[in-house]
Design brief:
By secondary structure, the protein is α+β, with helices and mostly antiparallel strands. Helix content is 34%, strand content 23%. It contains 9 helices and 17 strands. Helix 4 runs antiparallel to helix 5, helix 5 crosses helix 9 and helix 6 packs antiparallel against helix 7. The longest helix is centred in the C-terminal third of the chain and has 26 residues. InterPro entries: Metallo-B-lactamas, RibonucZ/Hydroxyglut_hydro, Sec-metab_biosynth-thioest. It comes from Nocardioides kongjuensis.
Length: 355
């Protein structure tokens, strides 16, 4: 759901002066280029991969989705700045989602570049490897949908096209990131800050001397990151996300270099907007519970508006409806943690009641 002033689909990035997803290697600071790579079947259209030049090679923040068109465009874009895949020394991957991780791990293992990923993403990778090796009866997300009271949506998701994960796309990283640490990239120091919420092992990378934040999906300038769309299910993902936003707010005010959307001027402004947005959504969820007495996440989700246009739940496509139900569950679980609601696990899903 958008909370920014400009829609992602129309946003112009100041480094290029063009739509943020337009192809190219756009210089955002001396020695740092932004390369948008396409995301087929994704409303976001592109992911920004950042290239940081150092004395001994390149460090890439995220890698893109491992599909031929993205690989070819990354190759072309690197060549346009006088580099190639063989110059990549390291991938710093913000989180395990396929549009960030899979091309990084493929290229990393082909060319000997170190791939670093948050340790808390290990359970998700292990689950994917078990699925690829043993097969799964169904997507693990279906169980999450059922706890949200969304059995019908789970059935529709199960009937959709599915494919087993390719082991080469989900190879384990060379380096697990644990806690906070720093990386030297030529003259730069990148501070890796653990920011769980969007996923349990999400990291942002701050170049405080340059005044920029490689924010991954944690701080996006025109949309709010999805919360609760992760397996295995995380405990209190929204609470973790909001606490991580507060951690970013403790850093200096930095220019945002996001994974999706245009470069934006102020991490402080955007963090404050995101925190206010989720507090508002929590209030709306609580009001729904008070009016209804008790309800599942799906029922509460139907009471809320979605996207920047405040669309009714029924106007969303089936995939977005499932995402909305899971995100609403994350809000309701935080209300329980705050003592503002209670929850009972029933066969048809978790039922919440306002305290």
């Amino acid at each position: 759901m958008s909370t920014g002033g400009i829609a992602t689909g129309h946003a112009v990035s100041p480094d290029s002066g063009r739509h943020w997803a337009d192809e190219g290697a756009w210089e955002v600071a001396e020695g740092i280029h932004r390369i948008p790579l396409p995301l087929p079947m994704d409303a976001l259209k592109a992911i920004n991969v950042y290239v940081v030049q150092g004395d001994d090679g390149l460090t890439l923040i995220d890698g893109g989705w491992s599909i031929p068109v993205a690989r070819e465009l990354l190759d072309t874009s690197l060549r346009s700045i006088g580099s190639g895949f063989g110059d990549i020394k390291r991938f710093l991957v913000t989180h395990v989602h396929r549009d960030h991780f899979t091309l990084a791990t493929v290229l990393g293992h082909e060319y000997g570049a170190d791939v670093a990923l948050g340790r808390e993403e290990q359970p998700a990778l292990e689950l994917l490897h078990r699925a690829g090796r043993d097969g799964l009866d169904e997507s693990p997300f279906l169980a999450v949908l059922r706890t949200a009271g969304a059995e019908e949506i789970a059935q529709l998701w199960a009937a959709g096209p599915g494919e087993l994960p390719k082991p080469v796309d989900w190879a384990f990283p060379d380096t697990w990131l644990e806690g906070d640490r720093s990386f030297d990239v030529g003259r730069r120091r990148l501070d890796a800050v653990h920011t769980p919420g969007h996923t349990p092992g999400h990291y942002v990378f701050a170049d405080q001397a340059e005044g920029v934040l490689f924010s991954g999906d944690h701080v996006l300038p025109t949309i709010t990151p999805s919360i609760g769309f992760t397996v295995p299910p995380a405990d209190q993902p929204l609470g973790q996300f909001m606490a991580s936003l507060a951690r970013v707010r403790e850093l200096p005010d930095l220019r945002i270099l996001p994974a999706h959307g245009p470069v934006a001027p102020s991490s402080y402004q955007r963090v404050d907007e995101l925190l206010a947005h989720h507090e508002d959504r929590l209030d709306l969820c609580l009001a729904s519970l008070k009016e209804r007495g008790s309800a599942t996440s799906l029922v509460v989700a139907k009471d809320l508006g979605w996207t920047r246009h405040e669309r009714a739940f029924g106007e969303l496509d089936v995939f977005s409806q499932g995402m909305a139900a899971m995100e609403t569950k994350a809000h309701l679980d935080l209300l329980v943690a705050r003592g503002q609601a209670s929850a009972v696990d029933l066969p048809d899903g978790v039922v919440y009641t306002a305290s």
